[in-house]
Amino acid sequence: MLKQTKPKGDSYYKGRAQNYNKKRLKQEWWHVEQKEMEALLETLPRDLSVVDIPFGTGRFVPFYDKFGYTIAGLDASADMIGAAREALGALYDKCSCTVGDAMDLPYKDGAFDLVVSTRFLRDIVTFGMAKKMLAEMARVTSKYAIIQLGNNFTTGRTPDDDEVMGGNLSKAGVDKLLKEHGLKVKDRRLVLSEPEIGEIYHILCEKI
Ligand SMILES: C[S@@+](CC[C@H](N)C(=O)[O-])C[C@H]1O[C@@H](n2cnc3c(N)ncnc32)[C@H](O)[C@@H]1O
Question: What is the pTM of this model?
Fold first, then answer.
């Protein structure tokens, strides 16, 4: 299996941030992610407090708002948060956004009912970082997490800490990883499937 050791973590600045939505809106699976996220949020209680890490362009904010959530977001790139402000218009004013590092979240234990994280732990940071970030996400939620992760169709293998996790884990391996971080899988929604390669899910977890 391919070992990808160059994380894309800190490169979402300026032009890349400005063009983020424009490029992603052309991806078919972006729209699947939107639909599946809305459907998963439907199953949760209303009026939750959510933190979205990394916030990116705040793509799920219209759903959070529709369900009466109190909204927070964190991203390492101020330019991405600037792009979110532009994309969201008046809705941005309902969000409390912070520039920060997912390795060390500036929130108290159990500060939120729900943490959401998409297009991040699987392919933007190394597996070593992803585990630390997962621990941080589990720490700041008191009830739920929706984490996007991928798996392959075989027995999988544990990635090295210096490589990107990608789809190296098996489905059972993903569940085990989440459990080791205090998160129990309750539901999963398929957002991308590549035959013979793997799948990506939005995974709804409850804090153990
Ligand atoms: C592919 S985007 C995903 C954004 C959004 N969650 C989505 O689904 O569109 C990756 C984001 O991770 C942010 N990022 C990279 N490293 C980070 C870190 N250490 N802590 C917080 N955010 C980080 C980037 O600035 C970028 O906005």
Answer: 0.94
